[in-house]
């Protein structure tokens, strides 16, 4: 329902936002407003945040992946982690990887990247004082597993009941869409997400279906 509303209002909101953004860029480049460029940049940044939220809402409404390919999950993990913690604000975070030999699976690269990045952001935000994030891949039966574990303080019993619900968040600066998008992406890949949380950390496990391209396409995006 949330995603359907996002699609319905997306165009109605995006069109005026695009117009406002264009005029702000134009005015911000004029010499008469040189002293106010910082404010123009701030307004444009806020518009971009609103536009990103609209994109997330539309993403929740999608029922099928856009570009499924036979890819190796390990390669996507490497791409996500490459330079991810080079930023100064992540200097107290360490990432360890244990990537096992896994078969290629039918996945949408951009969507799975977004899923991994959202889980990483969630893990980083769970450890404000720093710690280690472990990213594993493995196989179990006919499934390929992605496992991301942090050393945060865990998820409360009350919050655990709402994990994956759009707009649910325990953070003051979050829209509460990150994990909801993860669950939406998993659903489109016929994958399952489980998590285990204790006061010493939280582990998210994503179970992707294995098998050949033909076998997966029989139920892909259902």
TrEMBL record:
Record InterPro entries: HATPase_C_sf (IPR036890), HATPase_dom (IPR003594), His_kinase_dom (IPR005467), HisK_dim/P_dom (IPR003661), HisK_dim/P_sf (IPR036097), Sig_transdc_His_kin-like_C (IPR004358)
Histidine kinase domain sequence ranges: 8-212
GO molecular function: ATP binding; phosphorelay sensor kinase activity
Gene3D superfamilies listed in its UniProt record: 1.10.287.130, Histidine kinase-like ATPase, C-terminal domain
Keyword set, alphabetical order: ATP-binding, Kinase, Nucleotide-binding, Phosphoprotein, Transferase, Two-component regulatory system
Protein's name according to its UniProt entry: Sporulation kinase
């Amino acid at each position: 329902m949330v995603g359907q509303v996002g699609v319905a209002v997306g165009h109605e909101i995006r069109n005026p936002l695009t117009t406002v953004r264009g005029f702000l860029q134009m005015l911000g480049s004029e010499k008469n407003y040189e002293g106010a460029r910082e404010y123009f940049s701030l307004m444009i940044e806020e518009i971009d945040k609103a536009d990103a939220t609209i994109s997330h809402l539309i993403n929740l409404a999608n029922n099928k992946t856009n570009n499924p390919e036979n890819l190796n999950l390990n390669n996507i993990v490497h791409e996500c982690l490459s330079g991810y913690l080079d930023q100064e604000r992540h200097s107290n975070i360490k990432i360890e990887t244990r990537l096992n030999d896994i078969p290629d699976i039918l996945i949408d690269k951009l969507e799975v990247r977004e899923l991994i990045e959202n889980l990483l952001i969630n893990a980083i935000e769970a450890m404000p004082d720093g710690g280690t994030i472990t990213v594993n891949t493995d196989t179990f039966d006919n499934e390929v597993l992605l496992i991301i574990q942090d050393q945060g303080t865990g998820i409360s019993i009350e919050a655990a009941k709402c994990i994956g619900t759009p707009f649910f968040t325990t953070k003051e600066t979050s829209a509460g869409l990150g994990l909801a998008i993860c669950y939406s992406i998993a659903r489109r890949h016929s994958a399952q997400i489980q998590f285990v949380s204790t006061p010493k950390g939280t582990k998210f496990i994503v179970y992707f279906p294995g098998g050949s391209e033909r076998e997966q396409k029989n139920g892909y995006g259902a």
